# Entry
Amino acid sequence: MTGASSPTPAKVRALRIAGGTGQYLALGCYLVFLAFPLLWLLSTSFKSTRELGSLHPSWLPEDPSWDNYRAAFEAQPLLHAALNSLVVAATAALVSVATAVPAAYAMARHRSWAGRVGTVWILVSQMFPFILVIIPLFLVLKNLHLIDSIAGLIAVYVVWNLPFSLWMLQGYIKAVPRSLEEAAAVDGAGRLRTLGSVVLPLLAPGLVATLMFSFVTAWNEFFFALVLLKSPENQTMSVILTHFLGTEGVADLGPLAAASVLATLPSLVFFALLQRRLVGGMLAGAVKA
Amino acid sequence: MSLTASRADDVPGGRGTPPPRTAAQRRRALGLDRGTWFLLLPALIPVLVLSVGPLLYGVALAFTDAQSGRTTPTRFIGLANLSDLRFDSLFWDSFTIGLTWAVCVTALQFALALGLALLLDQNLRLRWLARTLALVPWAMPEVVVGIMWRLVYHSDAGILNDTLTRTGLLHENVDWLADLSYALPAVIVVGVWAGMPQTTVVLLAGLQNVPRELREAAHLDGAGIWRRFTTVTWPALRPVVVSITALNFIWNVNSFGLVYVLTQGGPGGQTRLPMLFAYEEAFTYGQFGYAAAMGLVMVAVIAVLLTLFLRKKLTEDAV
# Structure
């Protein structure tokens, strides 16, 4: 217990106020650091060419217009790139989650062997420089005539998404009470039946979160897409965006900003919809590791 | 003697070792029955074909003279690539830059994220806003993050120069990403911006796993903020800290897109991270074997650093 030596109530209150102010100040700095580039991107995307050329940039566009967005669609095949990204990301997410579910189940329920190998592989797979994987993949896909093809990229993303899907899913599966499965087993259900009719329904929210996470990862990915997709009509959003940078780094700032905002929207919507569950799922693995 | 004493925890039967298993349990632990194999197979096949296979192939390529688009067959040349690398001063420059980048970004990410997580663990009014905003950099494509910061750093139209000159901190505009001495720090700031929020969220979740009763008990016992942090919070948070820092470090060593968009490795190679260097070597100059050898050196370094870093964790709570 705090004894007779404790400070006077007035002093305690003053300290608490000072501490509180300091905390809010720190939080304020953080919010500025985080939000300021975002607001700048948004503001730039609505500015006129004349305003972007002025020597003293203003915080907010003087005469906001959609011109840059229109120009962005004219300058690059944005719609087509968005469609490519959508197809690639959605297919890769669906396939990787579908293949991950049984394996995640085995990892979660057979901790000893499958669990350990799985966890080690997940960690190791994060460790290898992509260059060591991309050169052989490039050569193999080239021999299969899958270079510059969306199908090749999807295949790469499926495998690339797998470690994290496994990680998240096994966390969700561990949260499903084992007693339910045991009850199903007593009732005579086989392993696949149990997985299908007992575990999967309870897993639905986790599945959705994992799907969305895989989608966003694939939608945002750049390196593999840059190496594997050559012709503009096959390229995804990330790669198309770099065309706005132009050669020698001379860029048309307005359309560049507008296209960037558009490329971010789908991921942001998914994250906003799902943020709570997503964080929970990602951490299910990380915290217990 | 002091050495052995300090390792008491690692000795079998010491604290943290599981109780001995029965023979039946051990048998079940080692062999997998057919059902489990069946469950693992759908994930195992694509992984073997598109991840483990290429990885081994990539390692093999490091010992060949493989080049893109040439007619003579690829030859096995042993350690020639690796010994060439030894004298490639450009590679070692990029190696140093890469380590500087990875260490700085990881350390700053962690320091800022820890402070912020402790802050957000308190009951503050704007907490929801900070938590929501924390997810945004995480959800953004790295290409967009790079483009966004190019707009911030832009020498004429950028907000950074404008703010700094208006407040008198700077006399004339700086071209941050093209300046020999500012480019690396400037990209490091972007790296921190992009990764810090995720680390914060992980640490925050770790903090919520610290038993509240323990902290309250320490508080009642008269422990101050610092004592409470060092004796209760930190030990409970440590496993999370170790995993997230190790992962962040690996991710940062392997990063590519952010800097590719920001500077393409310039000015004068000042921000040419190893991945950018290897990418150029492979896909601009077509030197597949040589680039693979660079990848191999990177793996080796990461592996050594991680072993040093994780040795303790692995022996303590074997996965």
